[in-house]
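FAQ: What does the model actually see?

It sees only this:
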Amino acid sequence: MYGKNKITNQKDKIKNNKKQEMAYENFPHEADIGIRGIGKNIEEAFEEGAKAMFDVEVDIEKVKAIKKISVKCQAINIEELFIEWLNALLTQASLNEMVFSKFKVKIKKNEILKIEGEVFGEKLRKKHNIKDEVKGATYSQLKVFKKNNKYIAQCIVDV
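And it is asked to produce this:
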């Protein structure tokens, strides 16, 4: 059954395979956060989604747009492109020990979709009010759609 299971007595839930001296168990896990970007076009929705993701990690209002980094990614559809974009940003943040607060996205459409983007930020510091580390953008609740003349890009990020 899918959903959150409460495990009250963990020792009772361990399953043993006595022949092989192995065991498995379930454990509670609540480490996901939904992010959503809203814009007048898909590019803006992707930019705002990136802001939402970095705001999970830090107070992005305190992040100055000092250094620019180019980011490129590609995918076969717009939903996967959103995930690739967010995960490319996390990779750049980790490699450069930075956080970002400003994003520029340009989507090119050919046989595959490509982003040629720029991100702006600075080295991660305590002044940014460090919150939770985002480990990755996931396909859970992934949607990119138009509603009421606004574009929305959303997914769940693993923290």
